[in-house]
Amino acid sequence: MLFGRKKRKPISIPAKKVAQWKYTTCNYCSTGCSIEIGLDENQKLVTSRGHAGADVNRGKLCIKGLLEHDLFNSPGRGTEPLIRDKHFHPFEQTSWDNALDTTAEQIKKIQKQYGRDAFAIISTGQLLTEEFYTLGKLARGCIGTNNYDGNTTLCMASAVSGYKRSFGSDGPPGCYDDFEHTHCLMAFGSNLPEQHPIIYWRLKEALEKRKFPLIVVDPRVTMLAQFADIHLPITPGTDCVLINAMLHVIINEGLQDQAYIDAHTQGFEEVKALVQDYDPKTAQHICGIDEDKIRTVARLYAKAPAAMSIWTMGINQSTHGSDGVANINNLNLITGNIGKPGGTSLSITGQCNAMGTREWSSCSGLPGYRYLENETDRQEIADFWGIDPEFFPKKRGLAETDIFPAIETGEIKGLWIVATNPMTSMPNTGRIRKALEKLDFLVVQDVYQDVEMNQYAHVYLPAAVWAEKQGCHTNTERRVNLIDNALPPFANAKPDFWIFNQLAKRFENGKRIHFPDQPEQAFEEMKQLSKGRNAYGKERTLDISGMSYEKIIQARGIQWPYRESDTGLKGAPRLYTDGKFQTASGKANLLPIKFVNNNEQPCQQYPFWLNSGRVVEHFHTRTRTGKIGNCNKFSPTPYMEMNPDAALELGVEHQSYVRLTSRRGDAVVMVQLTHRVPRNMVFIPFHFHDCVNRLTLGLLDPHSRQPAFKQCSVRIEAVDQQQAAQLNVERRAF
């Protein structure tokens, strides 16, 4: 008998009669799982399943992928373009022509009055690569603003910056297959079972075949930390100190790969000199890891025949994020673990196509990893597009995290938001809300009409979602895979590719630049631009010239580089296998990383660290997963993890409500007591609106401009339980 019930209701699974399966790629995280979506005889999409023949996921999907077919008819979807004069007026339905005419007119008006850079664009990591390329054409070649960036600044900018500083170019050098070959894996601030479950399954499968040490560096006892051989519960934001101490041990004990260092790197003596100040006895008092444990881990890593490092937001979302990535690269270069099976620095990317925006969107430069600062790159793209190279700016403009302060100061008067939700995702959201109120014009382009950003929009453009479109993604291991069009767009929503093309026609340069009608034609342009040599005369790593949609589907994804001369259906699994890097000298840069502790830290007034992260059932700001019942039911309401001993001291009960307060704002959450967090820390999932990012500090990394979401301090206060419960009900309804 279950809870007093005498008759147990049997579980029944309704039959889903599938008449046709269509191939596509998951549109959530960066793993890049191949999916088949099933349509019934009425062409209604009824189910999803993993593709067994795909190398990435081999038939498996996480909960989000299994339920992804529910996206198409989920509530809140945009059906028609909307328009209004003021953000506090009600929206009125309008035609696509009027919405796009108004948008173009407002952009031109703002630029004429205040200058080209007074209008800004913030994109995403969720579009298809051909859409990113087309938006970059529109932004760089037609609109001409230099203040154009993507929300990948909030998640992957530090990885990009660190790769560029160390290797001379962006692009993860390793692949998932490295799990099969490594002899030691170190995970920094990465909780694979919840963030990237299928990558975790690949790791787990490798561990079952051949046991090797798994070391997890994380201040919280994450699910991955629970499975680790060694868990290092580091003081938040001090990863650079830990790595410097490891380098101290490796170099002083002669465990480095000196032959590799001499042949393929530069800067070793500077790093060797700096790490002498980071002996484990001193470092332990900063990073919180015992000196003997530091020595043990350093020896394990250096002595392994092949060792690899992975990381996610625990490294990136810090004021030392770029330095942390560069230091992980130092660790792998000094031990000879770059470009060989099982030896790599592998950033586990955030969004499904964050790699695509890095490669082709022109956010931080020009297509194909080209630089605005390089005259040859500007000339090459101007010639290809058929415009004057002087139309391009000569250096990168503002990052997303600098655009919002520029609205406050009046430098930016208009903003276009494409498939992202800064009202929830940006730190210190109270400040973001006030900035948005100052805009003369805001256009929001999104799948969902009820996205929080739309509260301040003057024009709303309803976009198609996922398999209502066609185009490619690039995943964490540089694998290009195809989203195939399975359904027509919902109501009068339009593919982002179509929206960008139509808006381009309303600008002078849009009459000069060719904007292909079909995504596959844009892909052919990208293939041409991927060939050739970079500014140092070296063959481009980002070469997709041998790919085609047909080959991608046959292979279930192809890794770049994959050149015209390549045969078969497999690209290069690893970069830098020949020890040659994308720098002027051809050698990798070893960079001395000095740690400066500029984090906000717990104090008497705010005694708790605040940590944030992802849960498996939700994705980013819940714009999609919050509407899918079987995802949302597991985490329908904002909550925080709190240590039971700390709760006992404060008289806080399990599943009661409390108010968290920082120097910037407050948030009301439900308490979940757990020993996963230490006594001086609380953890909140970042997915919920008006929650954790009301508290976060958002100091920026000086290299990447990425915010430090994970290092700030809060205090816990009592709250009226009935009022908090009412707030909870309102949030769940939203």
From TrEMBL:
Keywords: 4Fe-4S, Iron, Iron-sulfur, Metal-binding, Molybdenum, Nitrate assimilation, Oxidoreductase. Residues 19-76 form the 4Fe-4S Mo/W bis-MGD-type domain. Its cofactor is [4Fe-4S] cluster; Mo-bis(molybdopterin guanine dinucleotide). SMART domains: Molybdop_Fe4S4. It comes from the Bacteria. It holds the Pfam family Molybdop_Fe4S4. The keyword Iron applies. SUPFAM superfamilies: ADC-like, Formate dehydrogenase/DMSO reductase, domains 1-3. Belongs to the prokaryotic molybdopterin-containing oxidoreductase family. NasA/NapA/NarB subfamily. This is Nitrate reductase catalytic subunit. The lineage of its organism: Bacteria, Pseudomonadati, Pseudomonadota, Gammaproteobacteria, Alteromonadales.
